[in-house]
């Protein structure tokens, strides 16, 4: 029986197998995960219901399990910045968000460094977050 906040067995297995520089995608409900899955990535569907869970809820739990050294987002080409980006910044203080356009983001998220894609029920658009695992210091 686990006492920590992260208890999902498939996510724990992927994180335990990952290392420094490995990437984790937390995807919104619109992300084409099955067709943009990299060769090395596991795929976990957490989309229980519309809006459940959100990307930021999953991020909040993942931050208790692994250090993050970089975060990237899918950015719209025009118009205002998606409001969820500010929520990402509040959970990842002092970490700049690397911005990719849609197809660059798909390429980055399906690359060989991505070890895990987590699909959420997030309904907000551009709510995809690609995290790079950092180093655990002694």
Highlighted features:
single chain; 138 residues; alpha/beta; RbsD-like fold; 6-stranded mixed sheet; 4 helices; 24% helix; globular
Q: Which helices and strands, and how do they pair?
A:
Elements: H1 9-17, E1 23-27, E2 42-45, H2 55-62, E3 68-74, H3 84-91, E4 97-100, H4 102-109, E5 114-119, E6 129-133
Parallel strand pairs: 1-5, 2-5, 3-4
Antiparallel strand pairs: 1-6, 3-6
Please, could you describe this protein's structure?
This protein has 138 residues and is α/β, with parallel strands linked by helices. It has a single domain, classed as RbsD-like domain (RbsD-like fold). 24% of the residues lie in helices and 22% in strands. It has four helices and six strands. It has helices spanning 9-17, 55-62, 84-91, 102-109, and strands at 23-27, 42-45, 68-74, 97-100, 114-119, 129-133. A six-stranded mixed β-sheet has the order 2-5-1-6-3-4. It is globular and about 45 Å long. The chain starts with 8 loop residues before the first helix and ends in a 5-residue tail after the last strand. The model has no long low-confidence stretch (mean pLDDT 96).
Reading off the top of the CATH hierarchy, the class is best stated as Alpha Beta
Measured by DSSP, the beta-strand proportion falls in: 15-25%
| Mean pLDDT over the residues | 96
Structural class designation = alpha/beta
Strand order of the largest sheet: 2-5-1-6-3-4
